[in-house]
Amino acid sequence: MSGSASAGGADALPAPLAAVVAEFEGADRGMRTEMLIEYADQFESVPATVASRPYPESARAPRCESEAFVFATDRPDGTLDLWFAVENPQGLSAKAWGAILKHTLAGMPLEQVARVPQDTIFKIFGRDISMGKGQGLIGMLEVVQHEARRRLQRRGGSRPG
Amino acid sequence: MSETALLADIAARGYAHPDVLVTTEWVAQNLKNPNVRIVESNEDSLLYPAFHVPGAVEVNWALDLNDTIRRDYVDRSGFEKLMSKIGVTRNTTVVFYGDKNNWWACYAFWVFQLFGHTNAKVMDGGRLKWEKEKRPTTREVPSYPASSYTAPERDDSRIRAFRDEVVTHMRAHKKMVDVRSPQEFTGERTHMAEYPQEGVLRGGHIPGAKNVPWARAANPEDGTFKDATGLRAIYEKEIGLKPEDDVIAYCRIGERSSHTWFVLTYLLGYKRVRNYDGSWTEWGNAVGMPIERP
Known about the structure:
The complex is a heterodimer. By secondary structure, chain A is mostly helical. Chain A contains six helices and two strands; from the N terminus they run H-H-E-E-H-H-H-H.
């Protein structure tokens, strides 16, 4: 397995993501909101060296009303660096989720990235997000996972579920 | 500045009911008006806590307007509790604003109309325009004395459409506007063909519906509504709607279509417009419903 070591096998959440989930699980709604706003504040848009406008449609997160775009570049160890753009300046949740995905999945084993359950979003954002918002955040994760799966398939190694 | 001067820009746009909109400047002048309650309603629940118009309260779609168990809106008792919580009486002018061209503000406005709170307006341009104009914002959450509010029973008959009514409407070849994106309307898959569409089992649209993405009614640079001429060019010249038509609007869950409902009803003065809030998440998942794909 390539990439940074983390606890558990391919089915486990990548360790940094598991830590974030644990952090959010103990939070009440107010704390959760504050923490998400802090993540949104950390969001940095994809640098021009990776992608520039107009961003390709292939990078667009499906169903995301905040117009999020997801980019993956290869690290020498075979894992991914992740980059995001959120075109809607008011898309705070998309920015927070982009910052979390970058912080927790970049450099992680592709097998683990490909298996992150969508339910993780609701553990972090809570169950009271709108259906549309949930779908948009799932869309961002899908693009990340698509990039991981594509590389795994190319590598002809494990078959992600 | 006089009330007329504050609203002159809106009055000049040729709307059927211009009184339903207020400008950001009008709101700025009424921040401390005890008869006005500014209400922020967003899709993104992080926005209000991040900052908001001073004195504004939040009405959260999921927590305040939805029934917590069934897929439905709050009942009379739930609405009365909400209004009491935000200190609104039947006489309070409620001014909605929110993110992304006021889409959820229009949704909240629509739900308020189910309970007959007609003393309601939308701040043209919403959060985006307020922010762009660098008007004051705060993170302070205000609290107002609880009010006594008696609401009528929710009236779902005038501006809300249910699935069976939509079927009847469709069979009668009456007008329908699908306000989703062209890709959702055609039912084509997104760029990742190996992934099934989430949330809906079937793609396409209700037979006979015409596609006008909701956001076309707004000016993208500041979220304000287009003027009446611009709106007629879209809804009347492009898809042939007429003010006397019986129209149903729908999207995926009814929030984007409430924006179009607002435009057709108040800005263009259509008399019979309903929002099908079950929308595509109901229609596209239900067994045996007719679906059209171009």
